[in-house]
Amino acid sequence: MSDLATVTKLVRSNAQLPVNVYFDDVLLQQELKQLFHQGPRYAGHELMVPNAGDYATLAWENEGRMLVRNPQGIELMSNVCRHRQAKMFDGRGNANNIVCPLHRWTYDLKGELIGAPHFDDTPCLNLSKTPLQIAPIVGASVEAATPLTAELQTRAKQRGITLAGSADQAATHVLKGYFSTMTEGKDTTVIYVWDIYDPAGNRLHRINGQQKAPSVGATEGWPAVAPATMQAIADQTIDQFAAWLGGSAG
Ligand code: FES
């Protein structure tokens, strides 16, 4: 016989969340971080930019980014000029190029800078489409990680890659580096592995290599590694990341 009607089955369930859960700001921030910001997020509908040349700035991002349709498809790109960080477009519209109203730097619909008045050479500064976040470096000493991190930032800027802060939810890629050294005789070699993840934590690509460190004094391990060695690794890393990005995007 079924016991569905017994008194214990009829007791009110206490599985409901306590009322304060619906008003707790700390919990809300935790939910946003863990549930909503970890996965793909809605940027906009393709019908916002139905025709080539259409653009639509994202009001909920203070118009910092926009959707742009070019002949190849739709790009989600920065609406902030690479010259002096002016906002370029307001709302929606259609344009042949993206022209900054301040000093007339001009980008094509793929975000590539094609003209910079008053500059002898057009700087290599395209609109950012890839916020990259660098996770804390694992395995390297602070003395070695510091020049590495600084050079990663410099090189990324040169390559038109935007670095996202550690709490920035807009990152599209996360770079995690693992480092070690190997000393043989007088030679020390830095061995490194970088894993590139998407915001959901899926590994997309791996970059690895090693760099011989010109000896610094009569030491071994990290004290033997000069800042220039770490800077060279940073340059190679960003160059390889950019090459992979270009290949995977194409
Ligand atoms: S701020 Fe855009 S061209 Fe100067």
* Structural category: alpha+beta
Kindly report the average pLDDT value.
83
Question: Any idea what the CATH superfamily of the largest domain is called?
Answer: Lipoprotein like domain
Spatial arrangement of strands, main beta sheet = 9-8-10-11-12
What does the model show?
By secondary structure, the protein is an alpha+beta fold. The chain has 2 domains: 18-127, Rieske [2Fe-2S] iron-sulphur domain (Rieske Iron-sulfur Protein); 132-249, Double Stranded RNA Binding Domain (2-Layer Sandwich), CATH 3.30.160. The protein is 22% helix and 26% strand. It contains 4 helices and 12 strands. A 5-stranded mixed beta sheet has the order 9-8-10-11-12. Helix 3 (142-158) packs across helix 4. The model has no long low-confidence stretch (mean pLDDT 83). FE2/S2 (inorganic) cluster binds next to loops.
Give a nutshell description of this structure.
With 250 residues, the protein is an alpha+beta fold.
